[in-house]
TrEMBL record:
Alphabetical keyword list: DNA-binding, Endonuclease, Hydrolase, Nuclease
Annotated protein name in UniProt: Putative mitochondrial mitochondrial structure specific endonuclease I (SSE-1)
The keyword Chaperone is annotated on this UniProt entry: no
Biological process per Gene Ontology, one example term: DNA replication, Okazaki fragment processing
């Protein structure tokens, strides 16, 4: 009997913890239920680990999900890396208002507790199956990067090595990493759906490689990314289809378009380029070096 190939599962730590917190908060406020946030986080952390271990590379290639199993009976087959933010990757130096809306959101004691519990659960996993980044290595304390940057660094490395990879998140920025040819997929933690290139196109309207340019034009209120004033999602899709990418729009589009649209493009060019820098991933060579032995281990 052949040994099952392992997948690498990259979990967006802040995304899952915030999702748990908002579910807990909504339930307690709406129904008046007294749910222990510590137990709630513990249960969800165990479940997400079980989900991560259940991904089967053979099923992924067919865009299928493996059966979800109880944690205690889930074979520890995959390599799991959970990434947490450590800085903003220098984005606020480019645009001071980047994620300013999130800075106003209070980090409640319950949210902080859930993050602490989640990390403890993840860290208690067998060392050959899971890593918490950047916490597992003291040498990574100087890394200035978001969880997305660390995930992108590791996912792109895996693509080069044709290693089956699943990114678990609900952040569509990470759709940029979906690549069927290189066995790189996304698992939406909200819908519980596996996301392939076809699914990205159906959901957003552009190919994964154009997500960055799409957001640079349409903007993103959740991250306070300005985009181009006067260009919404529909117009952004139309222009990308017509000119190929943002560079094509800012070169050929500025010359070819007339009237109001020409003015909008000219006035929004600088903002689009700044927005693209905000959406761009920052590569984290220190993170890759620290995780490389774990990724190569059979």
């Amino acid at each position: 009997m052949s040994v099952r190939e392992k997948a690498v599962v990259l979990i967006d730590g802040p995304a899952v913890v915030h999702r748990w917190y908002h579910r807990w908060s909504y339930t307690t406020e709406k129904y008046g239920s007294e749910i222990d946030p510590k137990k709630f986080a513990f249960k969800n952390a165990r479940f997400i680990i079980a989900t991560a271990h259940s991904f089967d590379p053979t099923h992924l290639a067919q865009h299928l999900l493996s059966p979800q199993l109880e944690y205690a009976h889930t074979p520890k087959l995959n390599k799991i890396i959970i990434c947490f933010d450590q800085g903003d990757g220098g984005r606020r130096q480019i645009f001071r208002e980047y994620k300013a809306n999130r800075a106003e959101v209070k980090r409640t004691p319950e949210l902080l507790m859930m993050e602490k519990v989640a990390k403890r659960v993840f860290e208690e996993e067998p060392p050959h199956t899971a890593l918490v980044v950047p916490d597992f290595d003291a040498r990574l304390k100087t890394v200035n990067a978001e969880a997305d940057d660390m995930i992108a660094t590791l996912a792109l490395y895996n693509q080069q090595n044709m290693t089956p990879t699943v990114v678990m998140s609900h952040d569509f920025d990470l759709y940029q990493l979906v690549d069927d040819l290189h066995k790189s997929y996304n698992f939406d933690i909200r819908t519980k759906h596996l996301v392939s290139e076809k699914n990205v196109i159906e959901r957003v309207g552009v190919h994964p490689r154009l997500i960055r340019d799409f957001k640079a034009m349409a903007g993103d209120a959740s991250d306070n990314i300005p985009g181009m004033k006067g260009i919404g999602k529909v117009r952004a899709r139309q222009l990308l289809k017509k000119y190929g990418d943002l560079d094509g729009i800012l070169s050929r589009g500025l010359k070819n378009e007339t009237g109001h649209l020409s003015e909008v493009l000219a006035q929004g060019a600088k903002s689009a380029l700044i927005s693209r820098q905000l959406v761009d991933f920052r590569m984290c060579p220190k993170v890759l070096k620290a995780c490389e032995a774990f990724l190569k281990r059979k």
